Amino acid sequence: MNIQTIDTEINTEETLTARERRREPLGTAVRTALDLYFKNLNGHKTGNIYQMVMAEVEKPLLESVMGNVKNNQSKAAQILGISRSTLRKKLKQYDLD
């Protein structure tokens, strides 16, 4: 099961409207998704959760920041609090370069 599957299940199980879900803090949304992920494991073992979550969060974060700074890597790196070389490495990792 992946985060996209969890997101689909959350959207069908919740009674909140789409507008209310958008107001939900990111931390709460992540916790809700992970709670559902663990619930749906049904006893199966899992691993590498950290990497799975980071990959799901990091790519849209990079896409959003890069879009907001019109692909200016210096500005994006400053906003993200990382070096430009780290930013370039992450952009390449997610095929965003």
What does this structure look like?
With 97 residues, this protein is mainly α. It folds into 2 domains: 1-46, no CATH class; 48-97, Orthogonal Bundle (Arc Repressor Mutant, subunit A). 71% of the residues lie in helices and 0% in strands. The chain has 6 helices and no strands.
How would you summarize what this structure contains?
The protein has six helices and no strands. It is mostly helical. The protein folds into two domains: 1-46, no CATH class; 48-97, Homeodomain-like (Arc Repressor Mutant, subunit A, Orthogonal Bundle).
Layout: helices, strands, pairs:
Blueprint: H1 3-13, H2 18-23, H3 26-39, H4 49-68, H5 73-80, H6 84-93
CATH top level of the largest domain? Answer: Mainly Alpha
Indicate the low-confidence ranges by residue numbers: none
Helix and strand pattern: HHHHHH
The termini sit apart by 28 Å
Here the CATH topology of the largest domain equals Arc Repressor Mutant, subunit A
